Amino acid sequence: MHQLDLFAADAPLPQPDPVAGVKAKDALATTPGTASPKKRGRKSLKELADDPHVIRDLDKVTLDKQYYPISEVAAMFKVNASLVRYWENEFDILQPKKNRKGDRLFRQEDIHHLKLIYHLLRERKYTIEGAKQKLKEDKKLAARNFEMVQALLKVRGFLTELKDQL
């Protein structure tokens, strides 16, 4: 019988038995210590932060309705509805209307507040407590800074398009 030393520096990896009915790729993907190609569950904050164009995409969307359900708002921000509910509980500036059934209906003002919260938490990397404190100290200043950043990003996008055309 061949003895396998797992702690040796040049130890070969165990190969799956093709007779056992499991494909070699599937067996290697499910072994401990290796990442499976299809990741299930919640995305990490780092994966979510890789999409810096969420706010810019939201600016392109025309808000023509008076009220938006939480599912549409969550889809706009590319987050789960539970996260939007959590932010509602944590931040006093979010006050969505609720119908008799208890469904949250977000107004355009609430969506603007969510943009500000998203900017502080996901783009500026504030903690929940830090974002609360920032909004509590001077909400108008935070909103003005957010609008300036958005305007500068639009100018930057325009200039890069102009540069590409040259």
TrEMBL record:
Gene3D superfamilies the UniProt entry points to: 1.10.1660.10
One Pfam family hit: MerR_1
Region (Disordered): 1-46
Assigned keywords, A-Z: DNA-binding
Domain HTH merR-type: 67-122
Any one GO molecular function term: DNA binding
InterPro entries the UniProt entry points to: DNA-bd_dom_put_sf, MerR-type_HTH_dom, MerR_fam
Identification of the protein by name: DNA-binding transcriptional regulator, MerR family
Organism for this UniProt entry: Chitinophaga costaii
